[in-house]
Amino acid sequence: MSLLLDTHIVLWWLSDDPTLANEIKDRLDHEPDVYVSVATIWEVAVKQSIGKLQKPEDLPERIRDSGFRQLDINAEHAIAAGRLPLIHRDPFDRMLIAQAKVERLTLVTRDAEIAKYDLQILAA
After folding, report:
1. Number of structural domains found in the chain
2. Secondary element (H or E) of residue 10
3. In what residue span(s) does the PIN domain sit (predicted)?
4. 2: helix, coil or strand?
5. Distance between CA 124 and CA 107 in Å, rounded?
6. Of 61-65, 88-92, 102-106, where does mean pLDDT reach its minimum?
7. Do 59 and 44 touch, CB atoms closer than 8 A?
8. Distance of alpha carbon 55 from its chain centroid, rounded?
9. How many CB atoms lie within 10 A of CB 80?
């Protein structure tokens, strides 16, 4: 199964946060088809610039260089994100939802609002 990681999952994985269950961490460490969206990298850079996330300063680069496959945003993703029901209003999460749906990926998340959409979820 191919996975797309929600931003908090990537951050927990990078920091070896015990919040991330060992079975999920092990899967991320060994599954060949694990994706990180460029929306996640963008979200982290924005949150650092407005002071919601702190150090390390090179966190967006660390995510980029994490070894996960990069999922770029394309026009189909943008259209799908814009057409999603307004259950979740966060534009970064809406993009991840759209990308997961369009690319038929399982979204790894702990966000209960995302689970209200019709898509494959791996609850973390």
Report:
1. 1
2. helix 7-14
3. 4-118
4. coil
5. 10
6. 88-92
7. yes
8. 19
9. 19
Specify whether the CB–CB gap between 97 and 117 falls below 8 A: yes
What are the tens digits of pLDDT across the range 33-42?
999 999 999 9
Cβ distance 123 to 110 under 8 Å? yes
Tell which residue, 32, 48, 1, 90, has the closest CA to residue 11: 48
Question: 8: domain CATH number?
Answer: 3.40.50.1010
Residue 100 CB-density burial (10 A; 0-12 exposed, 13-18 middle, 19+ buried) = buried
Instruction: Give the per-residue SS3 of 11-66.
Output: HHHHCCCCCCCHHHHHHHHHCCCEEEEHHHHHHHHHHHHCCCCCCCCCHHHHHHCC
Both tokens assigned to 35: 């994706």
Q: pLDDT at residue 13 above 90?
A: yes
Phi, psi at 120, each rounded to 5°? -75, 130
Nearest to 61 by CA among 46, 49, 47, 44: 44
Q: Which domain holds residue 65?
A: 3-123
Which letter does DSSP use for residue 113 in this model? T
